[in-house]
Amino acid sequence: MTDDEAAFIAAARSNDAAQFALITEPYRRGLQVHCYRMLANYEDAQDLTQETFLRVWRRRESFRGHATLRTWLYRIATNACLDFLDRRNDRTPVPAELPGADSEVHHLQPYPDRMLPEDPQEAVVARETIELAFIVAAQHLPPRQRAAFILRDVLGWPAPKAADALDLTVASVTSALQRARVTMRERLPDRRLDWRRPATHELSDDERDAVRSYIDAHERNDLDGLTALLRDDLRFTMLPDPGTVTFTARDAVDGWVSNGLFQRGYDDWRCTATTVNRMPAAALYLRAPGDPEYRLFTIAVLRVVEGKIAELTGFDAADKPWLDLPATL
């Protein structure tokens, strides 16, 4: 038993809430990322992390040190997320309005990099498991299959440990994992699937260049320059608006033009480079006619392949202080 685990038991027996909080707080960011992988929504992940700590406090005397404190906390967080998903029927992908566009995850939100774990052991989890494509693909797994996949293939838990956490047999967890892997391979055909092997956290030169060029095109109202940055098979989505997913650059650009991009009222931009979900992004600020300030409008998250934008996911950025972006410029 580690010193932390012994201290946790002592705090539980003495009902020392302050010491309990001191011991469990270092696990918060890791648990919140875990909840985000389960739920794809930053605000829900915050709420479920808090729910996890409430459950931990209520069950504090049941911890005996037979498992590590970290394992015990992640087990409670996983089941809190599963309980949440059992109650909600709006947390599954819905058919896209555009024929052939598969489905959309309307509840998807970006995850601010500043809230990722600071602990190096937590931070070595592969970069891909926080990227939007991975998070979206995981949402296509049934909740318990998703939990088995994350516990086994992302956190690296052995099958008996995952089975115990989910109150399933080892055979059931193994079967769920095999089905989950098939789905993930179908939805991420061009990605490596060794999720537990660390990947770099640094943006590549191509990614940095793409963000700079994207910002430059927006600020100059350069539609041709913007179009030149896009791969022909661009996947574009604007959330939380339904029916915006497109699968070609031409369709995306046509949609932007028809909605008035770079026309009066949508032609005075200032942008800043940032990152979310370990991905390059641009925060777009729009100044309306007569307004003295540029106001935060959207955040565009880019996936760059061979120097061009392969995926562009836009999020409504207003009233989301957790993105840590200034409201005005």
From TrEMBL:
Q: Which GO terms describe its molecular function?
A: DNA binding; sigma factor activity
Q: Spell out the subunit comment.
A: Interacts transiently with the RNA polymerase catalytic core formed by RpoA, RpoB, RpoC and RpoZ (2 alpha, 1 beta, 1 beta' and 1 omega subunit) to form the RNA polymerase holoenzyme that can initiate transcription.
Q: Which family is annotated?
A: Belongs to the sigma-70 factor family. ECF subfamily.
- Ranges where the RNA polymerase sigma factor 70 region 4 type domain occurs: 135-183
The protein's matches in PANTHER family, at most eight in alphabetical order, are given as: ECF RNA POLYMERASE SIGMA FACTOR SIGG, RNA POLYMERASE ECF-TYPE SIGMA FACTO
State the species of origin.
Answer: Streptosporangium saharense
Q: Where are the transmembrane segments?
A: none
Biological processes annotated in GO = DNA-templated transcription initiation; response to stress
What PROSITE patterns does this protein map onto?
Answer: SIGMA70_ECF
- Residue ranges of domain RNA polymerase sigma-70 region in the record: 26-89
One Pfam family, please name it: SnoaL_2
Cited Gene3D superfamilies: 1.10.1740.10, 3.10.450.50, Winged helix-like DNA-binding domain superfamily/Winged helix DNA-binding domain (1.10.10.10)
Question: What are the SnoaL-like domain coordinates in residue numbering?
Answer: 211-311
NCBIfam families linked to this entry: PRK08241.1, sigma70-ECF, SigX5
Q: Which UniProt keywords apply?
A: DNA-binding, Sigma factor, Transcription, Transcription regulation
Q: Which InterPro entries match?
A: NTF2-like_dom_sf, RNA_pol_sigma-70-like, RNA_pol_sigma-70_dom, RNA_pol_sigma-G_actinobac, RNA_pol_sigma70_ECF_CS, RNA_pol_sigma70_r2, RNA_pol_sigma70_r4_t2, RNA_pol_sigma_r2
Name the chain's protein. Answer: RNA polymerase sigma factor
